[in-house]
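Reviewers of the previous submission asked for a worked example of the structure-prediction workflow described in the proposal, so we include one complete record here. The input consisted solely of the amino acid sequence. No template or homolog information was supplied to the procedure at any stage.
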Amino acid sequence: MAQLFILVSGENPTLPFSEVKAILEAEDFKYRLVETLTQVLRIEADPNCIKVLVSRSAMARVCGIEVLNTKAEASEVLEKVEKADFSPFINEGESFVVRVKRVRESSSEINTWTLEKAIGKILFKKVRGIKVDLKAPRKTFFGVLTDDRFILGLKMAELKPGQFLRRGPRKKAFFHPSAMPAKLARCMVNLAQPRRGNLVLDPFCGTGSFLVEAGLLGCRVLGLDVKPYMVRGSLRNLMLYGVKPEGMAVADARSIPLEEASVDCIVTDPPYGTSATTLRLPARALIESFLSTVGEVVKKDRQICLAAPKTFKIHEIGERMGFKHLESHFIYVHRSLTREIAVFKRG
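From that input alone, the workflow returned the following structure tokens.
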């Protein structure tokens, strides 16, 4: 076990933290939550979990092993750096660089470039034979200023969001205006906690965003939609990204043609917009009907991640239908739509 820190993206105050925790739990990593700061999660865990976070996460940004944690005052930071033992993290002859990230406007009186330079100077004197390399360093010591605190550690991984931009709605073989963005789709898949080889079902598959992201994680995927052209379009997108589904079918999500407890988890975004098909039912009624029957399909103690407008209060609907509500997150989309992302467990 080691003290780790994870810098997450800032577009939502709760979703990135829950995604990290869900990945650790899905992959059976034991961890202890140390502290939650603005855009930073501090945990005790096996450092090997970082490889998994890198491969799965949509909203983690930088993962590292913590060296020190102190009040965000320049003099105190440098004093702690002087006293810290860096020998486990860098060896003689290795190159390094120091980078400092400010979260929002935290500790605005501190100049990050000046702090980087001062920490680097101390390190250069403390550890024999190391050298500074600003372009291609062997080691990066990464600091975060957040909530009037400064955390410094050895960067183990940095995740770039570009892969999700490359799977944007307009980049796909089949487009529909109601398509879920790839980044949010990946996050929702992670919240459902599938493992590699698990069967993930999307009964309102649309353009296949959830199926693509689950398939890229090594899950088996199965998609249903009431509209044949959506099923065909979803299959085109799956083929584009090299995901081979277990099956794709035209079916009504209110009566899913699968055996009881046949899927490991469900991730879906039922239709509710003006461009979506709701089977001529009010969108809320469609979701209620879906949740009243879908519990038979998912395995016991496994999870469902579902998106719907905040006004629908799907956490209440799910509980009324017998599911255990685990968590909800709210995402502002535009003036008339805030999404609730809810996670349920089948009892």
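The chain is about 30% helix and 30% strand. We consider this example representative of the routine output the project will generate in years two and three.
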